[in-house]
Amino acid sequence: MTVESVEAVEVKAEDTQMTEVSVSLPEKEKAVEKVNEAKPRTVEKSSSYREESNFLSDLKDNENKALIELRSKLEEAILGNTLLKKEELKKETASESKEEEPAAAEEKEKEPEATDGAAPEEAEPKTEGEDKQSCSEVEKPEEVVDRDITLWGVPLLPSKCAEGNDVILLKFLRAREFKVNEAFEMLKKTLEWRKEFKTDSILEEELGQDISSVAYMNGVDREGHPICYNIYGVLENEELYQKTFGTEEKRNQFLRWRIQLMEKGIQKLDFKPGGVTSLLQINDLSNSPGPSKKEIRIATKQAVGLLQDNYPEFVARNIFINVPFWYYALNALLSPFLTQRTKSKFVFVRPSKVTETLLKYISVEEIPVQYGGLKREKDTEFSIEDGGVTELVVKAGSTETIEIPVPEVGTTLVWDLTVLGWEVNYKEEFVPADEGSYTIIIQKGKKMGEPVRNSFRNNEPGKVVLTIENSVSKKKRIFYRYKTKNCSSS
């Protein structure tokens, strides 16, 4: 199982009895009434939003009922100071008491001691009024209600009517099949874990410089989901493997780094109905360490547990590419323990189908070149402003040419080209407009096996001709783009 199988095994939250704290009934009723009436019933939909909708008008009756109930429970818990464990409040109180103890000891030392056998002075008896006053002084101070509890930057108090509140609550409800009590307990445990793990400050930590190639965020898919790539093949390097998993301390550091990466991805999301509220994960298993590696199994189990318990519904789809045979066997063993909802998000891809599968979810200009796309790291040539990509279909047993005119002398032409499935012959030429001039061979004919980027600067008007010969018995999809730069901009 990989670290990024965020929802690998559904673990139900334990049913926990809530402790009722005295809160004035009118305040509760007003708050709950405000929560349920303040939320809009209908919102204009976005036709491009294809995941389960977060628009209230799209919810089923039972789902809407569960959401209203969860809002009410959350409102009551926040106003009653029962959302977080009592132990946390006790710890804070205990630390304050410890600070007061030294001061009390100093005061005691300053009290006059009896000398020469003289009896100590008797304390003056307290009057009934003074005794009552002292009793009132030791009464429990009034609890301060924290109305500003947030999760991923979204205020959780429902009566604040913060944009994104319902979206967050729906994540927990969907993770627990709209069982309100289980969703509420999951939310409570997530908040408690974040406090213990110090997750809210994790983005400020310097983590994982040595293992940044193991996982990283890069681009978006066709629906705008930020993409997280997890590259396990780099862990085949024994030195890097030991740096990452060699000791318990290093595994714990890896765990914090992986949670930090998840939090960085969440920073790119938009928690509002119609917004992008989840990530796309791509797990490259090429040359990955097998299941015999004990250290990675331990770290994986810990990471999967934390991610599935504390980041519900944050992965739109989990795509596993370059999957080895042993992983299929492992997945078959795990499959009975997975819910249908979880399994529906998994996509397993053989090496020969990687580019074809990724194209279903990601545009070719956002797919990295190592996976057959056109995206290059720190690309200085092409950007979104340069326009899109053109697709050309070459029929079985036929040849197609792409002609790019270059009429101005001194123009530099840059182009990208990739073929889905390869197996074609490809060549590049410059054909001058003057029939008396010679054709210049830019690239001799060769079998394509990776995306092409090339450039040519002309000394006379003409055109660049790219020739694709498909000799196999099935059609091929070609994707290409180009741009020109004159002398002043080259």
From TrEMBL:
Alphabetical GO biological process terms: cell division
UniProt name for this protein: Patellin-4
Repressor keyword on record: no
Sequence similarity: Belongs to the patellin family.
Biased composition (Basic and acidic residues): 26-62, 89-113, 123-141
Any one GO cellular component localisation term in the record: cytoplasm
Chief localisation class: cytoplasm
CDD domains to which the protein is assigned, alphabetical: SEC14 (cd00170)
Membrane keyword on record: yes
Pfam families: CRAL_TRIO (PF00650), CRAL_TRIO_N (PF03765), GOLD_PATL1_C (PF25099)
Signal peptide interval: none
Region spans: Disordered: 1-62, 89-141
Span of domain CRAL-TRIO: 204-379
Keyword terms, alphabetized: Cell cycle, Cell division, Cytoplasm, Lipid-binding, Membrane, Transport
Location of the protein in the cell: Cytoplasm; Membrane
InterPro entries tied to this protein: CRAL-TRIO_dom (IPR001251), CRAL-TRIO_dom_sf (IPR036865), CRAL/TRIO_N_dom (IPR011074), CRAL/TRIO_N_dom_sf (IPR036273), GOLD_dom (IPR009038), GOLD_dom_sf (IPR036598), PATL (IPR044834), PATL1-6_C_GOLD (IPR056794)
Superkingdom: Eukaryota
A GO term, aspect molecular function: lipid binding
Domain GOLD intervals: 355-484
